[in-house]
Amino acid sequence: MKKDLFIIFLSIFIAIVLAKTGALRVFLEETKDFGMLASFVSGFFFTSVFTISPAMVAIAELSKMEPLWRLTLFGGLGAVIGDMIIFLFVREHLSKDIPAVLGKIVGRVKYRMLLKILNFKPLRWINPILGALIIASPFPDEIGLALMGFSKVRPAIVAPLTFVFNALGILAIGLVAQSL
């Protein structure tokens, strides 16, 4: 936990340094012929709590040099790849471990009640919808992808959702950065 918090704070620090020093802008200007690749890579890193801060700075800078439609398209494609890696990892590995961890955290009785609520047929759609809303929000995608993974949502549904929601997030960052 401490290591994760350290990485998150380091990521935010790096993002601030990149934004304040202009180092990222200089780098992007020197590599402007690779704008689509830079957009893709920025989108890829836009998906994780550990890399979202520098990715947002890169997206903001790219929006001033790249056509916004290209940044949105290639950034969205990069985000889909990043999200699918996280989604498949969560679905295949973590979804088996979470019940045991949750049981220890909230207690067996509360965990069983939570399971009954989540498995109640009329409420089963809540996890995937909540997961999609989290992906659409500025929050890191891991939480939303975990909810979708636990709900057994198929990758063929997750991929287009993550593309649309991340592309909209990238577009929003680009529009705000262009207006400043």
Can you characterise this structure?
The protein is an all-alpha fold and 180 residues long. Helix content is 82%, strand content 0%. The protein is built from 9 helices and no strands. The longest helix has 39 residues. It is elongated. 33% of the residues are buried. The mean pLDDT is 77.
Q: Strand-residue fraction?
A: under 5%
Helical residues, percent: over 70%
The Cα radius of gyration reads 18 Å
Indicate the mean pLDDT: 77
Q: What is the number of helical segments per DSSP (H or I, 4+ residues)? A: 9
N-to-C span: 36 Å
Model regions low in confidence, pLDDT < 50 over at least 5 residues: none
Structural category: mainly alpha
Number of strands: 0
CA-based shape:
elongated
What is the string of SSEs from the N terminus onward? HHHHHHHHH
Largest sheet: none
Question: What secondary-structure arrangement, pairings included, does this model have?
Answer:
Blueprint: H1 2-21, H2 23-30, H3 35-45, H4 52-62, H5 68-106, H6 108-119, H7 126-136, H8 141-150, H9 155-179
Identify the notable features of this structure and list them briefly:
mainly alpha; 82% helix; elongated
In a nutshell, what does this entry contain?
The chain is an all-alpha fold. Helices cover 82% and strands 0% of the residues.
